[in-house]
Design a protein that fits this description.
The chain is an alpha+beta fold and about 325 residues long. It has one domain: Jelly Rolls, CATH 2.60.120. Helices cover about 25% and strands about 20% of the residues. The protein is built from seven helices and 15 strands. An eight-stranded mixed sheet has the order 2-3-11-8-13-6-5-4. The structure holds 2-oxoglutaric acid and fe (ii) ion. The site of fe (ii) ion has 4 residues, from loops. The site of 2-oxoglutaric acid (AKG) has 11 residues, from strand 6, strand 8, strand 12 and strand 13. InterPro entries: DIOX_N, IPNS-like_FE2OG_OXY, IPNS-like_sf, Oxoglu/Fe-dep_dioxygenase_dom. This is Fe2OG dioxygenase domain-containing protein. Pfam families: 2OG-FeII_Oxy (PF03171), DIOX_N (PF14226). Belongs to the iron/ascorbate-dependent oxidoreductase family. Keywords: Iron, Metal-binding, Oxidoreductase.
Protein backbone atom coordinates (compact mmCIF):
# COMPACT_ATOMS: atom_id res chain seq x y z
CA UNK A 1 0.00 0.00 0.00
CA UNK A 2 1.30 3.45 -0.94
CA UNK A 3 1.93 5.88 1.93
CA UNK A 4 0.30 9.31 2.17
CA UNK A 5 2.58 12.10 0.90
CA UNK A 6 3.15 14.68 3.63
CA UNK A 7 3.13 17.74 1.45
CA UNK A 8 3.89 21.27 2.64
CA UNK A 9 0.98 23.72 3.00
CA UNK A 10 1.48 27.20 1.52
CA UNK A 11 -0.74 30.08 2.61
CA UNK A 12 -1.32 32.43 -0.33
CA UNK A 13 -2.79 35.12 1.93
CA UNK A 14 0.29 35.41 4.17
CA UNK A 15 1.70 38.93 4.37
CA UNK A 16 5.12 37.55 5.20
CA UNK A 17 6.21 37.24 1.58
CA UNK A 18 9.80 36.32 2.29
CA UNK A 19 9.11 33.37 4.54
CA UNK A 20 6.31 32.20 2.23
CA UNK A 21 8.72 32.38 -0.72
CA UNK A 22 11.34 30.41 1.23
CA UNK A 23 8.76 27.80 2.11
CA UNK A 24 7.70 27.56 -1.54
CA UNK A 25 11.31 27.12 -2.60
CA UNK A 26 11.76 24.23 -0.22
CA UNK A 27 8.48 22.63 -1.37
CA UNK A 28 9.43 22.95 -5.06
CA UNK A 29 12.96 21.64 -4.54
CA UNK A 30 11.97 18.70 -2.34
CA UNK A 31 8.58 17.65 -3.70
CA UNK A 32 7.44 19.68 -6.69
CA UNK A 33 4.01 19.34 -5.05
CA UNK A 34 2.30 21.28 -2.28
CA UNK A 35 -1.12 22.33 -0.95
CA UNK A 36 -2.21 25.94 -1.46
CA UNK A 37 -4.68 27.41 1.04
CA UNK A 38 -6.38 30.82 1.34
CA UNK A 39 -6.14 31.17 -2.42
CA UNK A 40 -9.24 33.32 -2.83
CA UNK A 41 -11.35 30.89 -4.90
CA UNK A 42 -14.62 30.44 -3.01
CA UNK A 43 -15.80 26.95 -2.06
CA UNK A 44 -19.22 27.85 -3.39
CA UNK A 45 -17.80 28.52 -6.88
CA UNK A 46 -15.83 25.28 -6.79
CA UNK A 47 -19.00 23.37 -5.89
CA UNK A 48 -20.81 24.96 -8.84
CA UNK A 49 -17.98 24.06 -11.23
CA UNK A 50 -18.10 20.42 -10.09
CA UNK A 51 -21.88 20.43 -10.47
CA UNK A 52 -21.71 21.80 -14.03
CA UNK A 53 -18.91 19.39 -14.88
CA UNK A 54 -21.07 16.46 -13.68
CA UNK A 55 -23.93 17.69 -15.83
CA UNK A 56 -21.71 17.82 -18.90
CA UNK A 57 -20.23 14.35 -18.49
CA UNK A 58 -23.75 12.93 -17.89
CA UNK A 59 -24.87 14.06 -21.37
CA UNK A 60 -25.35 11.36 -24.02
CA UNK A 61 -22.09 10.49 -25.78
CA UNK A 62 -23.37 11.94 -29.08
CA UNK A 63 -23.87 15.37 -27.47
CA UNK A 64 -20.34 15.27 -26.04
CA UNK A 65 -18.87 14.08 -29.35
CA UNK A 66 -20.34 17.18 -31.03
CA UNK A 67 -17.76 19.12 -29.02
CA UNK A 68 -14.83 16.82 -29.81
CA UNK A 69 -11.40 18.36 -29.09
CA UNK A 70 -10.20 20.86 -31.74
CA UNK A 71 -7.31 23.33 -31.27
CA UNK A 72 -6.87 21.63 -27.88
CA UNK A 73 -10.31 22.76 -26.75
CA UNK A 74 -13.37 20.60 -26.13
CA UNK A 75 -14.11 16.98 -25.32
CA UNK A 76 -11.72 14.02 -25.17
CA UNK A 77 -13.53 10.67 -24.80
CA UNK A 78 -12.61 7.66 -22.67
CA UNK A 79 -9.33 5.93 -23.62
CA UNK A 80 -8.48 8.74 -26.09
CA UNK A 81 -5.31 9.59 -24.27
CA UNK A 82 -2.29 7.73 -23.01
CA UNK A 83 -0.18 10.12 -20.95
CA UNK A 84 2.69 7.67 -20.66
CA UNK A 85 4.10 7.22 -24.18
CA UNK A 86 6.24 4.30 -22.94
CA UNK A 87 3.15 2.20 -22.08
CA UNK A 88 1.17 0.11 -24.54
CA UNK A 89 -2.14 0.34 -22.64
CA UNK A 90 -5.33 1.00 -24.62
CA UNK A 91 -5.48 4.47 -23.05
CA UNK A 92 -6.52 6.10 -19.79
CA UNK A 93 -9.91 5.47 -18.26
CA UNK A 94 -11.03 9.08 -18.17
CA UNK A 95 -12.89 11.63 -20.23
CA UNK A 96 -12.13 15.32 -20.14
CA UNK A 97 -13.03 18.76 -21.43
CA UNK A 98 -10.53 21.55 -22.16
CA UNK A 99 -11.22 25.27 -21.99
CA UNK A 100 -8.48 27.53 -23.34
CA UNK A 101 -7.58 31.20 -22.84
CA UNK A 102 -10.70 33.37 -22.64
CA UNK A 103 -8.96 36.09 -24.69
CA UNK A 104 -9.04 33.66 -27.62
CA UNK A 105 -12.62 32.72 -26.83
CA UNK A 106 -13.63 32.05 -30.44
CA UNK A 107 -11.48 28.89 -30.30
CA UNK A 108 -13.28 27.54 -27.25
CA UNK A 109 -16.19 25.17 -27.61
CA UNK A 110 -19.17 25.38 -25.27
CA UNK A 111 -22.19 23.13 -24.65
CA UNK A 112 -25.32 24.84 -25.96
CA UNK A 113 -27.19 27.22 -23.66
CA UNK A 114 -30.35 25.19 -24.12
CA UNK A 115 -28.59 22.10 -22.76
CA UNK A 116 -26.57 23.71 -19.97
CA UNK A 117 -27.55 27.37 -19.43
CA UNK A 118 -25.15 28.19 -16.55
CA UNK A 119 -22.21 26.23 -17.89
CA UNK A 120 -20.20 28.85 -19.74
CA UNK A 121 -20.49 31.70 -17.17
CA UNK A 122 -19.56 29.27 -14.36
CA UNK A 123 -16.48 28.01 -16.21
CA UNK A 124 -15.40 31.51 -17.24
CA UNK A 125 -15.74 32.77 -13.72
CA UNK A 126 -13.68 29.86 -12.37
CA UNK A 127 -11.05 30.28 -15.10
CA UNK A 128 -10.54 33.94 -14.09
CA UNK A 129 -10.41 33.22 -10.36
CA UNK A 130 -7.98 30.32 -10.59
CA UNK A 131 -5.83 32.34 -13.01
CA UNK A 132 -5.56 35.18 -10.56
CA UNK A 133 -4.59 32.82 -7.71
CA UNK A 134 -2.04 31.23 -10.07
CA UNK A 135 -0.51 34.57 -11.05
CA UNK A 136 -0.16 35.54 -7.40
CA UNK A 137 1.56 32.24 -6.74
CA UNK A 138 3.92 32.76 -9.70
CA UNK A 139 5.01 36.10 -8.20
CA UNK A 140 5.94 34.25 -5.00
CA UNK A 141 7.73 31.59 -7.05
CA UNK A 142 9.76 34.41 -8.64
CA UNK A 143 10.72 35.62 -5.16
CA UNK A 144 11.55 32.03 -4.23
CA UNK A 145 14.04 32.02 -7.12
CA UNK A 146 15.64 35.28 -5.93
CA UNK A 147 14.07 37.15 -8.84
CA UNK A 148 11.92 40.28 -8.83
CA UNK A 149 8.33 39.56 -7.84
CA UNK A 150 7.16 40.56 -11.33
CA UNK A 151 9.93 38.72 -13.23
CA UNK A 152 7.58 36.39 -15.13
CA UNK A 153 5.34 39.34 -16.03
CA UNK A 154 8.33 41.32 -17.31
CA UNK A 155 9.41 38.54 -19.65
CA UNK A 156 5.86 38.31 -21.03
CA UNK A 157 5.08 34.84 -19.64
CA UNK A 158 1.90 36.05 -17.95
CA UNK A 159 0.73 38.24 -20.77
CA UNK A 160 -2.26 36.28 -22.12
CA UNK A 161 -0.85 33.03 -20.76
CA UNK A 162 -1.67 29.91 -22.77
CA UNK A 163 -3.51 28.32 -19.86
CA UNK A 164 -6.05 25.52 -19.97
CA UNK A 165 -8.76 24.49 -17.58
CA UNK A 166 -9.37 20.79 -17.84
CA UNK A 167 -12.45 19.13 -16.37
CA UNK A 168 -11.84 15.45 -15.71
CA UNK A 169 -14.18 12.55 -15.13
CA UNK A 170 -12.98 9.07 -14.17
CA UNK A 171 -15.95 6.70 -14.51
CA UNK A 172 -14.40 4.31 -12.01
CA UNK A 173 -14.84 1.03 -13.83
CA UNK A 174 -11.95 -1.36 -13.37
CA UNK A 175 -10.33 -3.04 -16.36
CA UNK A 176 -9.71 -6.76 -16.58
CA UNK A 177 -7.17 -8.10 -14.16
CA UNK A 178 -4.51 -8.62 -16.81
CA UNK A 179 -4.89 -5.10 -18.22
CA UNK A 180 -2.92 -2.21 -16.74
CA UNK A 181 -5.41 0.62 -17.12
CA UNK A 182 -4.87 3.82 -15.18
CA UNK A 183 -7.22 6.71 -14.57
CA UNK A 184 -4.26 8.81 -15.72
CA UNK A 185 -0.99 7.04 -16.49
CA UNK A 186 2.32 8.36 -15.14
CA UNK A 187 3.18 11.78 -16.51
CA UNK A 188 4.53 15.19 -15.65
CA UNK A 189 2.61 18.33 -16.60
CA UNK A 190 3.95 20.52 -19.39
CA UNK A 191 3.67 24.10 -18.18
CA UNK A 192 4.66 26.38 -15.31
CA UNK A 193 2.34 25.22 -12.53
CA UNK A 194 -0.85 23.19 -12.25
CA UNK A 195 -3.57 24.01 -9.73
CA UNK A 196 -5.70 20.95 -9.11
CA UNK A 197 -8.77 20.29 -7.04
CA UNK A 198 -10.52 16.94 -6.68
CA UNK A 199 -13.94 15.88 -5.42
CA UNK A 200 -12.29 14.04 -2.53
CA UNK A 201 -12.25 10.58 -4.12
CA UNK A 202 -8.68 9.25 -3.80
CA UNK A 203 -6.51 7.97 -6.65
CA UNK A 204 -3.84 10.64 -7.24
CA UNK A 205 -0.29 9.51 -6.54
CA UNK A 206 3.00 11.38 -6.88
CA UNK A 207 6.49 10.01 -7.20
CA UNK A 208 8.21 11.93 -4.43
CA UNK A 209 11.99 11.90 -4.17
CA UNK A 210 14.17 12.61 -1.23
CA UNK A 211 17.21 14.02 -3.01
CA UNK A 212 17.47 17.28 -4.90
CA UNK A 213 19.09 15.69 -7.95
CA UNK A 214 17.19 15.97 -11.22
CA UNK A 215 15.77 12.48 -11.45
CA UNK A 216 15.49 10.27 -14.47
CA UNK A 217 11.85 10.15 -15.34
CA UNK A 218 10.22 6.82 -16.06
CA UNK A 219 13.06 4.92 -14.40
CA UNK A 220 12.11 1.76 -12.50
CA UNK A 221 11.58 0.81 -9.72
CA UNK A 222 9.31 3.62 -8.60
CA UNK A 223 7.81 4.43 -5.25
CA UNK A 224 4.50 6.24 -5.26
CA UNK A 225 2.79 8.19 -2.51
CA UNK A 226 -0.91 9.03 -2.25
CA UNK A 227 -1.81 12.70 -2.59
CA UNK A 228 -5.06 13.16 -0.73
CA UNK A 229 -7.59 15.90 -1.15
CA UNK A 230 -7.49 18.62 1.51
CA UNK A 231 -10.72 20.57 2.01
CA UNK A 232 -10.44 24.12 0.66
CA UNK A 233 -6.92 23.60 -0.75
CA UNK A 234 -5.52 23.39 -4.24
CA UNK A 235 -2.96 20.71 -4.93
CA UNK A 236 -0.22 22.55 -6.83
CA UNK A 237 2.52 20.91 -8.85
CA UNK A 238 5.43 22.23 -10.84
CA UNK A 239 5.35 21.63 -14.61
CA UNK A 240 8.13 20.83 -17.08
CA UNK A 241 8.63 24.38 -18.34
CA UNK A 242 9.26 25.60 -14.80
CA UNK A 243 11.67 22.69 -14.37
CA UNK A 244 13.49 23.86 -17.52
CA UNK A 245 13.58 27.49 -16.32
CA UNK A 246 15.06 26.38 -13.01
CA UNK A 247 17.46 23.87 -14.58
CA UNK A 248 15.86 21.05 -12.55
CA UNK A 249 16.14 22.92 -9.24
CA UNK A 250 12.35 22.78 -9.04
CA UNK A 251 10.88 19.39 -9.80
CA UNK A 252 8.21 18.57 -12.26
CA UNK A 253 7.17 15.47 -10.35
CA UNK A 254 5.68 12.43 -12.04
CA UNK A 255 2.13 11.69 -10.99
CA UNK A 256 -0.71 9.38 -11.96
CA UNK A 257 -4.28 8.52 -11.05
CA UNK A 258 -4.88 4.94 -9.94
CA UNK A 259 -8.12 3.16 -10.74
CA UNK A 260 -10.02 2.65 -7.48
CA UNK A 261 -13.36 1.45 -8.83
CA UNK A 262 -14.94 4.69 -7.60
CA UNK A 263 -16.22 7.43 -9.88
CA UNK A 264 -14.10 10.57 -9.55
CA UNK A 265 -14.10 14.20 -10.77
CA UNK A 266 -11.28 16.70 -10.74
CA UNK A 267 -10.43 20.14 -12.15
CA UNK A 268 -6.89 20.81 -13.37
CA UNK A 269 -5.76 24.31 -14.32
CA UNK A 270 -2.53 24.31 -16.30
CA UNK A 271 -0.91 27.73 -16.06
CA UNK A 272 1.30 27.78 -19.13
CA UNK A 273 3.25 30.82 -20.40
CA UNK A 274 2.40 32.99 -23.38
CA UNK A 275 3.28 31.01 -26.53
CA UNK A 276 5.95 33.55 -27.61
CA UNK A 277 7.79 33.40 -24.29
CA UNK A 278 11.27 31.85 -24.42
CA UNK A 279 11.85 29.33 -21.67
CA UNK A 280 15.54 29.32 -20.82
CA UNK A 281 17.66 28.53 -17.82
CA UNK A 282 17.55 31.33 -15.22
CA UNK A 283 20.94 32.83 -14.44
CA UNK A 284 20.47 32.02 -10.76
CA UNK A 285 19.94 28.32 -11.55
CA UNK A 286 23.07 27.48 -13.51
CA UNK A 287 26.75 27.61 -12.71
CA UNK A 288 29.94 25.80 -13.64
CA UNK A 289 29.03 22.96 -11.33
CA UNK A 290 25.41 23.02 -12.49
CA UNK A 291 25.56 23.48 -16.26
CA UNK A 292 22.50 24.29 -18.31
CA UNK A 293 20.59 21.08 -19.06
CA UNK A 294 18.15 22.23 -21.71
CA UNK A 295 18.46 24.59 -24.69
CA UNK A 296 16.15 27.63 -24.75
CA UNK A 297 12.77 26.89 -26.33
CA UNK A 298 9.72 28.91 -27.36
CA UNK A 299 6.90 27.98 -25.01
CA UNK A 300 4.39 27.48 -27.86
CA UNK A 301 6.75 25.07 -29.66
CA UNK A 302 7.36 23.08 -26.50
CA UNK A 303 3.66 22.77 -25.76
CA UNK A 304 2.89 21.72 -29.32
CA UNK A 305 5.55 19.03 -29.19
CA UNK A 306 4.21 17.61 -25.93
CA UNK A 307 0.59 17.65 -27.10
CA UNK A 308 1.65 15.93 -30.30
CA UNK A 309 3.17 13.08 -28.27
CA UNK A 310 0.01 12.70 -26.18
CA UNK A 311 -2.69 13.18 -28.79
CA UNK A 312 -0.94 12.96 -32.16
CA UNK A 313 -2.26 16.45 -32.94
O1 LIG B 1 -7.24 14.07 -11.75
C1 LIG B 1 -6.21 14.24 -11.10
O2 LIG B 1 -6.16 14.13 -9.88
C2 LIG B 1 -4.91 14.56 -11.83
C3 LIG B 1 -5.05 14.92 -13.27
C4 LIG B 1 -3.76 15.20 -13.92
O3 LIG B 1 -2.70 14.93 -13.41
C5 LIG B 1 -3.71 15.87 -15.27
O4 LIG B 1 -4.76 16.00 -15.91
O5 LIG B 1 -2.61 16.28 -15.68
FE1 LIG C 1 -1.07 15.95 -14.40
Amino acid sequence: MAEAAKLPIIDLSSTDLISTANFIRQACVEYGFFYLVNHGVEEELLARVFEESRKFFSLPLAAKMNLLRKEHRGYTPLYAENLDPSSSSKGDSKESFYIGPLEKSCLNQWPSQELLPSWRPTMESYYCKVMSAGKKLISLIALALNLDKDYFEKIGALDEPESFLRLLHYPGELGHFEEQIFGASAHSDYGMITLLVTDGVPGLQAYVYSTSVCREKFKDPQTWENVFHMNGAFIVNIGDMMERWTNCLFRSTLHRVMPTGQERYSLAFFLDPNTECIVQCLGSCCSESRPQRFPPIRSGDYLKERLMLTYGS
